[in-house]
Amino acid sequence: MDTAQTVSLIEDILKGNKTRKDLDVVEDKALRAALQKVSFVVLEKQIAYRSLNDLRINYDKIINALSCAIVLLQSDKNFPGYSEAARHSLEIISLELPFHNAALYLVPENPGEDGLVELVGYYNREEQRVIITGDQEEPLIHGPEEGIIGWVSQHRETALLGDVERDTRFLPIDGLGMQVSSLICTPLVSRGKFMGVLSFSHHIKGFFHEHDIRILETMGEFIAYYLYHSVLVGCAEESP
Amino acid sequence: MDTAQTVSLIEDILKGNKTRKDLDVVEDKALRAALQKVSFVVLEKQIAYRSLNDLRINYDKIINALSCAIVLLQSDKNFPGYSEAARHSLEIISLELPFHNAALYLVPENPGEDGLVELVGYYNREEQRVIITGDQEEPLIHGPEEGIIGWVSQHRETALLGDVERDTRFLPIDGLGMQVSSLICTPLVSRGKFMGVLSFSHHIKGFFHEHDIRILETMGEFIAYYLYHSVLVGCAEESP
């Protein structure tokens, strides 16, 4: 193998055009081994860059979730009831995390039946606005096991749907009239009390990943804590 | 240059023993260029791995801080006063973040003078125990601008000391009798109210980095929020 051939082979390896098997044609054993090592370094570099990219994305997501939690906890408002506090939370979520749709459901003040949740409002990322369920409108209530929201409120577990069409738990009611292909939702629990459901959705399939579960559950923890305490403090401050 | 020499050169490049300049001896222009590219890929791989490592460490730190915040917010206890809530916070910090010393200072209930803070307790990582300042003992109070704790409570800014010996703001009183070489501390502020100082220290110089500032400030936000609200709720629950 002459120098020109060696050079051409190295160039191909660097471009990732040669597999380890392709190098079997190199007759010189030592050269073949050296070139295989070069090919391995190229692969390692690619893997490292990919991991770095993934980790950066996750890191940014956690930082976003943290900022959102801090803005929420710092907000100087207390509320007489959970639905007012939930509306405020939804407004902050839509400002801090505007890249997906968000919806907040709460256990109604007089639930009647166990496992019911009622839509408080949602954020539509396409229209970039928060839609609050008015008191005039017919309330949107999910019964137990009704849609994915009903499933989450019944099972009190986070649900990740990479493709809503492939999940029988998803019903049109869960989409809230928005174009939804993937969805992740988590129960809101504070001090053992089930308070509602937080849901994020997106029109792209597979928008949410396994690692988003932890981030969403963290968000859920903070929001449940916020709802519980801002109402408690709101009541405490109102009483003389 | 024969094959054996080329192989030896490639092996050296892969080990990182050759700089770009060392390759000037290669007479064949095309081979030199190809080997320089290999050397560049080796460098890129090293940088990617180092960045990945740094990012993983930061990521783990944020996850740790988050877990600590969640454990704190989830804890089912409310307290009649800030110092009881602060002691509880310190116990959780020492369980969740046991790799450095931690200390918590609060504005005394009757501060008298502005800018005073009093030590509530500290965690000694070497002895792995929390030391709570008892009511019998002489309280350890920092006046304004007294030591780095006094500086933080006066300026209400986070301070990062890579080497306490090189910072005139640091006084022996800040070390709390522990071996301290580096330190980071942040003011605790909730709803504009200055409540105290949270401090982490370590016996190794340069243990804390620029990116720890954000993490510590986040911790400070949660702890200040927790102190403020657990006392408010504690009082609300006690009143009939």
From TrEMBL, chains A, B:
Per its UniProt record, what InterPro entries does this chain match?
A: GAF (IPR003018), GAF-like_dom_sf (IPR029016)
According to the entry, every stretch annotated as the GAF domain falls at 81-237
Q: What is this protein called?
A: GAF domain-containing protein
